[in-house]
Amino acid sequence: MVKGKIDKGARTASIVCLILSMVLIIRLFQLCIIEGQNYKKLAESNHQRIIPLEPLRGIIFDRNGIPLVKNMPYFLAVLNIGGERNSSGDINSKEIDEIARLLNISPDEIKERLKNRSSTVTFATKEFEPVVIKEGLTFEEVARIEARHTDFPNLSVTTTAIRRYLYGSVGAHLIGYIGRINEKQWESLRHEGVPPDAFIGQWGIEKIYDKELRGIFGKRIIEVDAFGNELKVLRDVPPVKGKDIRLTIDIELQKALEEAYGEKAGAFVAIKPDTGEILALGSLPSFDPNRFSRGAPPGYWRQLVEDSRAPLLNRAFQSQYPPGSVFKIVTAIAGLEEGIIKPSTTFHCSGGIPFGNRFFRCWKKEGHGQVDLKRALVESCDVYFYEVGKRVGIDKIAKYAMALGLGKASGINLVSEKKGVVPSSEWKLRATGQPWFAGETLSASIGQGYVSATPIQLARLIAIIANDGSMPDLKIILPEGPQISNGVSSEIDRQKFIGGNNPSYFKMGVGISRETLEFIKEALIGVVNEPGGTGGAARLPGIVVAGKTGTAQVISKAIETHKLSEKLRDHAWFVAFAPAREPQIAMAVFVEHGGHGGSGAAPIARKGIEIYFKGSVK
Amino acid sequence: MSKLFDRLVHFDWLIFSITVTLSLLGILTIYSATRMPEYEKTVTYATNVDELNNPNPYLSHQQTKEQNSNQETNAYLKAKVTIRLDLYQKQIIWFFCGIVVFFGILFIDYQWFKRFSYGLYIFSLLLLILVLFIGKNTMGASRWINLGAISFQPTDFFKLTFLFALSAYFVDLKGSKIVETSKSFSGESNGFGGGSNSSGLTARTILKSFFLFVFLPVLLIFKQPDLGSAAIIFITFLFMVLLYGAESRVIKMAIIIGLISLPFLWPLFWENLKDYQKNRIQAFLSEEVDPAGIGYHIKQSKIAIGSGGFSGKGYLKGTQGPLRFLPERHTDFIFASFTEEWGFLGGLIVISLYILYLLRGFETAAKARDDFGRYLASGITILTGIYIFINLGMAMGLAPVVGVPLPFMSYGGSALVSNFAMAGILANIRMRRFEIFY
Question: Are the CB atoms for B19 and B419 separated by under 8 Å?
Answer without folding.
Answer: yes
